[in-house]
Amino acid sequence: MNAAAVAGGQVGPSLDLVFQALADPSRRAIVERLARGPASVSELAQPLEMALPSVLQHLQLLEASGLVRSAKTGRVRTCRINSTALDQAERWISRRRSAMERAFDRLGDFLKE
User: Fold this and answer.
1) Claim: this prediction has a pTM higher than 0.90
2) Residue 34 burial (CB < 10 Å; 0-12/13-18/19+)?
3) What residues does each domain of the chain span?
4) Is the dihedral of CA 28, 29, 33, 34 positive or negative?
């Protein structure tokens, strides 16, 4: 049995990639920056203390997960957030939270009896 099934729900490959992408602090920083609006790769790389090829690898993983989309115009690649992937992760977390709250409510009712 896989970890997702043990955790109480099936997780699709795309959701697995979203959580994998968000597991890295540099990628989370990129997502946080893009939440404020589109940015070029060089703008995204500026605050990160890593070489441009490393930033590009992070962006590739973010794009593979569906969290980020990019388009090239001339020599500039502009990235933007894809809220659909974030929405999917948020729904999964919300369902887990709701299930836990129901379990705590039942425990509270049981303890009152």
Assistant:
1) no
2) buried
3) 13-112
4) negative
How far apart are the C-alpha atoms of 91 and 95, rounded to whole Å? 6
We find that the CATH architecture of domain 13-112 is Orthogonal Bundle (1.10)
Structure tokens at 16: 């697995």
Q: What is the pLDDT of residue 99?
A: 64
For residue range 4-53, what is the model confidence (pLDDT) as tens digits?
443 445 455 589 999 999 999 999 999 999 999 999 999 999 999 999 99
Residue 98 reports pLDDT greater than 90: no
Starting at the edge strand found earlier in the chain, the sheet holding 76-81 runs 39-40, 76-81, 68-73
Question: Which amino acid type is present at position 62?
Answer: L
Query: Which residues neighbour 92 within 8 Å (Cβ) at sequence distance 6 or greater?
Result: 9, 11, 15
